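Thread title: Can someone regenerate the structure for this chain?

I was given the following input by a collaborator and told the matching C-alpha coordinates would be attached. They weren't. Posting the sequence so someone can regenerate them.
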Amino acid sequence: MATGKTAVGRELATRLGRRLFDTDQLIEKQAGLSIPQIFKRYGEEHFRDLESRVIATLGGYPSGELVVSTGGGAVIREVNRQFFFQWGIVILLTASEEAILERVQKTGGRPLLAGGREKEKIASLWGERRSYYQQCHLEIDTTGRQSQEVAQEIVRLLGF
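Best answer:
Regenerated them for you:
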Protein backbone atom coordinates (compact mmCIF):
# COMPACT_ATOMS: atom_id res chain seq x y z
CA MET A 1 0.00 0.00 0.00
CA ALA A 2 1.25 3.44 -1.03
CA THR A 3 4.65 2.17 -2.15
CA GLY A 4 4.38 3.57 -5.67
CA LYS A 5 3.19 0.49 -7.54
CA THR A 6 1.08 2.36 -10.08
CA ALA A 7 3.60 5.15 -10.72
CA VAL A 8 6.56 2.78 -10.91
CA GLY A 9 4.55 0.36 -13.05
CA ARG A 10 3.68 3.15 -15.48
CA GLU A 11 7.32 4.26 -15.69
CA LEU A 12 8.59 0.69 -16.06
CA ALA A 13 6.08 -0.10 -18.82
CA THR A 14 7.20 3.00 -20.72
CA ARG A 15 10.89 2.15 -20.36
CA LEU A 16 10.35 -1.45 -21.48
CA GLY A 17 7.84 -0.67 -24.24
CA ARG A 18 5.19 -2.85 -22.60
CA ARG A 19 1.57 -2.39 -21.68
CA LEU A 20 0.66 -1.51 -18.10
CA PHE A 21 -2.05 -3.62 -16.51
CA ASP A 22 -3.17 -1.95 -13.25
CA THR A 23 -5.57 -4.29 -11.49
CA ASP A 24 -7.07 -1.63 -9.21
CA GLN A 25 -7.92 0.62 -12.16
CA LEU A 26 -9.43 -2.29 -14.07
CA ILE A 27 -11.51 -3.34 -11.06
CA GLU A 28 -12.87 0.19 -10.73
CA LYS A 29 -13.68 0.34 -14.43
CA GLN A 30 -15.46 -3.02 -14.46
CA ALA A 31 -17.37 -2.39 -11.22
CA GLY A 32 -18.26 1.20 -12.03
CA LEU A 33 -17.24 2.05 -8.46
CA SER A 34 -14.12 3.26 -6.70
CA ILE A 35 -12.27 0.78 -4.52
CA PRO A 36 -13.41 2.53 -1.32
CA GLN A 37 -17.01 2.31 -2.61
CA ILE A 38 -16.61 -1.41 -3.36
CA PHE A 39 -15.27 -2.05 0.15
CA LYS A 40 -18.02 0.00 1.76
CA ARG A 41 -20.87 -1.50 -0.25
CA TYR A 42 -19.75 -5.12 -0.63
CA GLY A 43 -16.77 -5.71 1.67
CA GLU A 44 -13.21 -6.91 1.23
CA GLU A 45 -14.08 -10.46 0.19
CA HIS A 46 -16.08 -9.19 -2.80
CA PHE A 47 -13.22 -6.89 -3.74
CA ARG A 48 -10.80 -9.84 -3.58
CA ASP A 49 -13.14 -11.84 -5.85
CA LEU A 50 -13.11 -9.02 -8.40
CA GLU A 51 -9.34 -8.75 -8.08
CA SER A 52 -8.82 -12.46 -8.73
CA ARG A 53 -11.11 -12.32 -11.79
CA VAL A 54 -9.14 -9.41 -13.22
CA ILE A 55 -5.83 -11.17 -12.56
CA ALA A 56 -7.12 -14.32 -14.27
CA THR A 57 -7.58 -12.33 -17.49
CA LEU A 58 -3.80 -11.93 -17.66
CA GLY A 59 -3.62 -15.45 -19.06
CA GLY A 60 -4.78 -14.07 -22.39
CA TYR A 61 -1.49 -12.22 -22.89
CA PRO A 62 1.88 -13.69 -23.80
CA SER A 63 4.35 -13.86 -20.92
CA GLY A 64 6.61 -10.81 -20.90
CA GLU A 65 4.17 -8.52 -22.71
CA LEU A 66 2.82 -6.72 -19.66
CA VAL A 67 3.90 -4.82 -16.60
CA VAL A 68 1.31 -5.57 -13.94
CA SER A 69 0.59 -3.41 -10.92
CA THR A 70 -1.58 -4.97 -8.23
CA GLY A 71 -2.81 -3.97 -4.84
CA GLY A 72 -0.69 -5.18 -1.95
CA GLY A 73 -3.32 -7.69 -0.88
CA ALA A 74 -3.44 -9.56 -4.19
CA VAL A 75 -0.91 -12.03 -2.77
CA ILE A 76 -3.35 -13.23 -0.13
CA ARG A 77 -5.00 -15.64 -2.53
CA GLU A 78 -3.06 -18.70 -3.62
CA VAL A 79 -4.54 -18.63 -7.13
CA ASN A 80 -3.15 -15.12 -7.66
CA ARG A 81 0.30 -16.04 -6.34
CA GLN A 82 0.45 -19.10 -8.57
CA PHE A 83 -0.39 -17.00 -11.58
CA PHE A 84 2.16 -14.30 -10.76
CA PHE A 85 5.01 -16.73 -10.26
CA GLN A 86 4.09 -18.82 -13.28
CA TRP A 87 3.91 -15.90 -15.69
CA GLY A 88 6.41 -13.31 -14.57
CA ILE A 89 9.00 -11.74 -12.37
CA VAL A 90 7.43 -10.55 -9.14
CA ILE A 91 8.80 -7.36 -7.65
CA LEU A 92 7.85 -6.16 -4.19
CA LEU A 93 7.93 -2.41 -3.67
CA THR A 94 8.29 -1.45 -0.02
CA ALA A 95 8.53 1.78 1.94
CA SER A 96 8.96 2.70 5.56
CA GLU A 97 5.82 2.83 7.70
CA GLU A 98 6.34 6.57 8.03
CA ALA A 99 6.56 7.04 4.24
CA ILE A 100 3.47 4.90 3.69
CA LEU A 101 1.54 6.82 6.34
CA GLU A 102 2.56 10.16 4.82
CA ARG A 103 1.56 9.04 1.32
CA VAL A 104 -1.76 7.61 2.50
CA GLN A 105 -2.60 10.80 4.38
CA LYS A 106 -1.99 12.81 1.19
CA THR A 107 -4.08 10.60 -1.09
CA GLY A 108 -6.66 9.08 1.27
CA GLY A 109 -9.14 6.44 0.15
CA ARG A 110 -7.55 3.37 1.78
CA PRO A 111 -10.39 1.18 3.06
CA LEU A 112 -8.13 -1.12 5.06
CA LEU A 113 -6.89 1.88 7.07
CA ALA A 114 -10.30 3.39 7.81
CA GLY A 115 -11.17 4.27 11.38
CA GLY A 116 -7.85 5.58 12.68
CA ARG A 117 -4.73 3.90 14.06
CA GLU A 118 -3.28 3.84 10.55
CA LYS A 119 0.31 3.16 11.61
CA GLU A 120 -0.72 0.09 13.61
CA LYS A 121 -2.84 -1.14 10.71
CA ILE A 122 0.05 -0.69 8.26
CA ALA A 123 2.30 -2.75 10.53
CA SER A 124 -0.40 -5.39 10.96
CA LEU A 125 -0.97 -5.73 7.20
CA TRP A 126 2.76 -6.09 6.65
CA GLY A 127 2.92 -8.78 9.32
CA GLU A 128 -0.01 -10.70 7.82
CA ARG A 129 1.47 -10.60 4.31
CA ARG A 130 5.19 -10.87 5.05
CA SER A 131 5.51 -14.58 4.23
CA TYR A 132 3.89 -13.98 0.83
CA TYR A 133 6.02 -10.92 0.14
CA GLN A 134 9.21 -12.83 0.94
CA GLN A 135 8.55 -15.09 -2.06
CA CYS A 136 9.05 -12.22 -4.52
CA HIS A 137 11.98 -12.27 -6.90
CA LEU A 138 13.10 -8.71 -6.05
CA GLU A 139 12.40 -6.24 -3.28
CA ILE A 140 12.93 -2.52 -3.79
CA ASP A 141 12.52 0.17 -1.14
CA THR A 142 10.82 3.28 -2.57
CA THR A 143 11.18 5.46 0.53
CA GLY A 144 12.26 8.95 -0.52
CA ARG A 145 12.62 7.94 -4.16
CA GLN A 146 10.95 9.03 -7.39
CA SER A 147 9.23 6.48 -9.62
CA GLN A 148 11.72 7.11 -12.44
CA GLU A 149 14.63 6.21 -10.17
CA VAL A 150 12.93 3.03 -8.96
CA ALA A 151 12.02 1.95 -12.50
CA GLN A 152 15.61 2.57 -13.62
CA GLU A 153 16.89 0.36 -10.79
CA ILE A 154 14.47 -2.41 -11.77
CA VAL A 155 15.59 -2.27 -15.40
CA ARG A 156 19.22 -2.42 -14.27
CA LEU A 157 18.65 -5.32 -11.87
CA LEU A 158 16.72 -7.32 -14.48
CA GLY A 159 19.37 -6.65 -17.12
CA PHE A 160 16.98 -5.14 -19.69
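Strands lie at 19-22, 66-69, 91-94, 138-141.
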